């Protein structure tokens, strides 16, 4: 009952920037936290960043600290991921997720998922 739609992916050169957006609709009042995950070909889906709707608590994967920033606009039910200093290893499909109960780094903590948006970083 929560729908998530990601946008903003694309092709960028190493060192460049992209901003991803995740628009939430439906019973958004029931969700506690939002997260970004990514999955590269042949790899597992890994946590990138998370934020709570109320209070704005944040979590980041060590691999993106200092480069990525998660933010939100409660009035628009939208979460953003600003990605700077992109590296080729950031190439992946990026997924937005909503948790009813927690802000965490485990995919199992999240209850709803978007379809993903492709980010490709070239050298």
Give the termini separation: 40 Å
Question: What gyration radius follows from the Cα positions, in whole Å?
Answer: 13 Å
Helix coverage percent: under 10%
How would a crystallographer describe the biggest sheet? Answer: 7 strands, mixed
Helical/strand content category: mainly beta
Range of strand content: over 45%
Number of helices: 0
CA-based shape:
globular
- Uncertain runs are none
Number of strands: 11
Describe the secondary-structure layout:
Blueprint lengths: L1 E6 L2 E4 L4 E9 L6 E7 L6 E7 L5 E3 L7 E6 L4 E6 L8 E8 L12 E2 L3 E6 L1
Parallel strand pairs: 2-11
Antiparallel strand pairs: 1-3, 3-8, 4-5, 4-9, 5-6, 7-8, 9-10, 9-11
Would you mind describing this structure in some detail?
- The strands form 2 sheets. Strands 2, 4, 5, 6, 9, 10 and 11 form a 7-stranded mixed beta sheet that branches. This protein has a 4-stranded antiparallel beta sheet with strand order 1-3-8-7, with no helix packed on it.
- It has 123 residues and is mainly beta.
- Helix content is 0%, strand content 52%.
- The mean pLDDT is 95.
- It has strands at 2-7, 10-13, 18-26, 33-39, 46-52, 58-60, 68-73, 78-83, 92-99, 112-113, 117-122.
């Amino acid at each position: 009952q929560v729908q998530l739609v990601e946008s903003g992916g694309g092709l960028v050169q190493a060192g460049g920037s992209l901003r991803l957006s995740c628009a939430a609709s439906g019973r958004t009042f029931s969700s506690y936290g939002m997260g970004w995950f990514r999955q590269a070909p042949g790899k597992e889906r890994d946590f990138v960043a998370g934020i709570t709707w109320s209070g704005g608590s944040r979590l980041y994967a060590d691999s993106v600290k200092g480069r990525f920033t998660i933010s939100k606009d409660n009035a628009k039910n939208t979460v953003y991921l600003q990605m700077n200093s992109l590296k080729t290893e950031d190439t992946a499909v990026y997924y937005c997720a909503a948790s009813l109960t927690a802000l965490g780094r485990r995919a199992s903590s999240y209850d709803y998922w978007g379809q993903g948006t492709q980010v490709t970083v070239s050298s």
